[in-house]
Amino acid sequence: MTSADGGRQSVKSLFKMLEVLEAFSSSDPELSVVEIARRTSLPRTTVHRIVDSLRSVGFLEQDASRDRYRLGLKLFELGGNALMNLPLYREAPPFVDTLAKLSGEDVHLCIFDGAQMVFVNRRNQVARPHNTVITMEASPCHSTGVGKAALAFQGEAVIERVIRAGLARFTPNTIVEPKRLKAELAAIRARGYSIDDCEHEPELRCVGAPIRNSAGRVFAAISASGPSRRVTPERVPELARAVMTHAELLSIRLGYEPSSQKPGAGFSGKHAGLDDEARHPSSETKTPAEWTIKS
């Protein structure tokens, strides 16, 4: 075998290892070798060998019964390091703080991991004990403001994958029909922001907007949320202006160039109604689809 052949074989082995790790999910946290083989279409002997290797380095853990596996804490450690080293993690705090101050509402910043939204930063109006522990808390895409803001700008294959994973109902307002969710995502792309109309938590309304990287790809989202009695349908357009502006300014800080944006790309391009601090941070009842910003 030549060195080139050896290199190709190593790459194939790495892809197989990744397939095994991706077989696990939040809905199926523990799997047997047989289940992994069935999900990956890999031979059982191959899965046995890969599982043993992943367990030896801490990427998988074996339960007491010895026949089921789960993702190991080593992955959590690496994930925490990856999160803290993201430019988004370093650059976001001033924007999150300013949006929270300007809106007077809770602000959440999440990154899209391909299936759900993982919290990166948050500011709550009700003071809570300071906690520096990384919990990797995640939220669904179909029922939250940040989730729909990010999902709306993904490819059709990604949207279909999220739908196939299941659209769980959290409140009477949760969108659980695929056709209706796709229509909602199209409306979000058209207006540039998402609305969680008490869909994830009762009596909690949220407005979200997408965040782009230097290549213009939507990979995260930011939102402002509050009690529905305070975040009324009439207030949604005003709040959306603030959220979209902060999303755009943070995207620019990350290297995004708005001049390259295409129609319906998710930003209004206007900073009307925002004070100088918001533009430059230091370091009748309508249905959601009908809420639009009036210039």
From TrEMBL:
SMART domains documented for this protein: HTH_ICLR (SM00346)
Any one GO molecular-function label of the UniProt entry: DNA binding
Gene Ontology BP annotations: negative regulation of DNA-templated transcription
Pfam families (alphabetical): HTH_IclR, IclR_C
Basic and acidic residues: compositionally biased ranges: 272-283
SUPFAM superfamilies: GAF domain-like, Winged helix' DNA-binding domain
InterPro entries to which the protein is assigned, alphabetical: GAF-like_dom_sf, HTH_MetabolicPath_Reg, Tscrpt_reg_IclR_C, Tscrpt_reg_IclR_N, WH-like_DNA-bd_sf, WH_DNA-bd_sf
Keyword Ubl conjugation (UniProt): no
Region called Disordered, residue ranges: 258-295
Domain IclR-ED: 74-256
Protein's UniProt keywords contain DNA-binding: yes
Keywords: DNA-binding, Transcription, Transcription regulation
Protein name as catalogued: IclR family transcriptional regulator
Lineage of origin: Bacteria, Pseudomonadati, Pseudomonadota, Alphaproteobacteria, Hyphomicrobiales
